[in-house]
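Dear colleagues,

As part of the handover before I leave the project, I'm documenting each prediction I ran so the next person doesn't have to rerun anything. This entry is a single chain, and its sequence is reproduced below.
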Amino acid sequence: MKRCIGPLSLVLLLAACDTVSEPPDIQVLRESRPIGDAKELAVDVKYDVGQLEITRGADDTLFSLDLEYDRRIYDPRFTFDAGDRASLRLDTNSRRNFGSRSRRDNDLTLRLTDKVPIDLNLTAGVSESRLEMTGLKIRRMRLRGGVGKTEVTFDKPSGQTMSSLDVESGVGELIIHGLGNAQAEQIDLKGGVGHTELDFTGDLGTSRTEATIKVGVGAVRLTIPRDANVEIEAEGSFLSNISAPSFQRDGRNYTHRGEGGATIRIRVQSGIGGVEVELI
C-alpha cells in the first residue's frame, strides 16, 4: 500500500530531523556593571523562549545577567549606555523559525539594583517568567506576555511610587502579587486568553490608583483589601460578567467604602471574559 506525505507533515518531519541531528551549542552570556554615576536605570528585554527570572542583585552592582542559549538558534544582542540615565537592552534575537528550535531553550537570570529608580520594559514570547520585584524601586513597568506563565511579586514597599503599570497578557497565566506595596498610580491591563490575577494587598497607605481593565476572552480576578475605598465602573453590554458580591451596585457602578485612606478606581471593559472582584 502506497503512503503519501502531505506538505505539512513533511515540514514537521524535516523540522524534527533538524532538531535531532544538530546537538545544541550552549553558550553563556554574562554581563554586569557597577552602579557608578547612575541615578536611574532603563531596562529593555525582549525574550523569545525559555525560563526567565528577575530579582534584586548585589549592593555594589547596577545589574548583572546570565543568559544560557543555543548558538545555533539565537544570536543575543546586548547594549549598555552608562551615565546618570543608564540603560541596558537585551534581545535574544532568534535566527531561525520556531519549528527548528532545540529541546533546550534559553535560561535568563537578571539581577537589578535596589539603589536607583528603574523603568522596566519586558516582552516575553513562549516563557515561564518569575519577576521578583520586592525591594526594587520600579518607577514604570511595561509587560507584554506571550504564551506561558508570568508571576510578579511585590512583597514589601520599596519607597518608590510606581507611576504606571502597563500589562498586556497573552495566552496562559499572569499573576501579580502585592500591588498595594507598589502603590501604582496608573494601571492598564489588557487580558488575553487565559487567567489573570491582580492582587492589591500590601501597604496601600493613602495612595490613589486609577486602573483600566479590558477583558476579551480570558478571566480576570481582582483581590482588594477591605480597608480601601473602591469604585468600579463597568462599560459595555456584558455587565453580568462582573462578579462583585460584596459591593453596592447602582446600575453600571459598584462601590465599597473602606476605613483606610487609599482609593482604587477601576474602569472595566468586559467582552466574553469575566471579572471577579473579592474583598479580603
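Residues 1-20, 98-103 have pLDDT under 50 and may be disordered. The domain at 28-279 is CATH 2.160.20 (Pectate Lyase C-like).

All the best with the project,
I.
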